Amino acid sequence: MRVLVADDDVTSRRILEAILRKWGLEPTAVADGLAADAILQQPDAPPLVLLDWNMPGLEGPEVCRRLRRRETSNPPYVVLVTARGEKGDIVKGLDAGANDYVAKPYDVEELRARVGVGMRMLDLQTDLAKARDALAFQAAHDALTGLPNRRAILETLERDLARTAREGGILSLAVCDLDHFKNVNDTWGHPAGDEVLATFARVARSCLRACDVLGRYGGEEFLLIAPGARPTAASGVFERVCRAVAGCPVATAAGVVSVTVSIGVAGAKVGSTSETLLEAADAALYRAKAEGRDRVAYA
Predict the structure, then answer these.
(1) Contacts of the segment 232-235: beta carbons below 8 A, 24+ positions apart
(2) Do 110 and 159 have their domain in common?
(3) What's the gap between Cα 119 and its chain centre?
(4) Which pTM was predicted?
(5) What CATH code is carried by the domain that includes residue 10?
(6) Which pLDDT tens digit goes with each residue over 243-270?
(7) Domain assignment present for 145
(8) Burial class of residue 168 (count of CB atoms within 10 Å of its CB; 0-12, 13-18, 19+)
(9) Are residues 165 and 192 in the same domain?
(10) Between 32 and which of 57, 92, 102, 273 could a Cys-Cys bridge form, CB atoms 3.0 to 4.6 Å apart?
(11) Active site (catalytic) residues
């Protein structure tokens, strides 16, 4: 683990660096508060900080205050190193934003214990951040297909429409519906139906441009947002999805299932809302179904 050591006393700083290296840590040392503050503003700042109280430029407590005002998502753990042993000074340092303190001249075993506490707290912070990210992903994604779920894809559509209107851009929306999907569930069973949905998501994603977004709208319906392209210009994407799905029978435990998809496409116009765009794409989808399925129709 990387550690920032800020101490204007060269002897104390070098001793502390040597101790930390002996413990398998990677110290970076600076001699004043301004240098410490500059490092702590960097996105890859060391997660553990040993900060002397009395330093030129900025004192340790002021470095802490500046750090806490920035409110980073993964704040460093700060141990304030101080010769001030009065209770009022300790409280002042903790109020400034330090997580812990160690008194000078420090006992090496006490320092080791306090650094160990900091490392455990940072590990917990990392675990919590991972858990938070996992929960956020689960809340925005469909568990079966891994695609953005209904709420997330509609939010993406709203954002992209707003940006398109603001920047005078263009955008196409496709509603994709797996043909005769009820028959798949009735004939092959729901586990096979799940395999078909997951396979469609994988195959369709492989056909998209980097800027396109595919999400599960509900049941066997999916939304495909193609920013920066009118329906005719983006037709290659939609036709590619249609052909790829038809050319990829799904092997399930119940047997091999042939699948096709019908796609209705609409382009955003001046004043388009997500509701009007969805209605237009739905109407095009209805026409694709009426004309025989396994095809793309444009509004």
Answers:
(1) 232/298, 233/172, 234/172, 234/265, 235/265, 235/296, 235/298
(2) no
(3) 25
(4) 0.73
(5) 3.40.50.2300
(6) 999 999 999 999 999 999 999 999 998 8
(7) no
(8) exposed
(9) yes
(10) 57
(11) 220
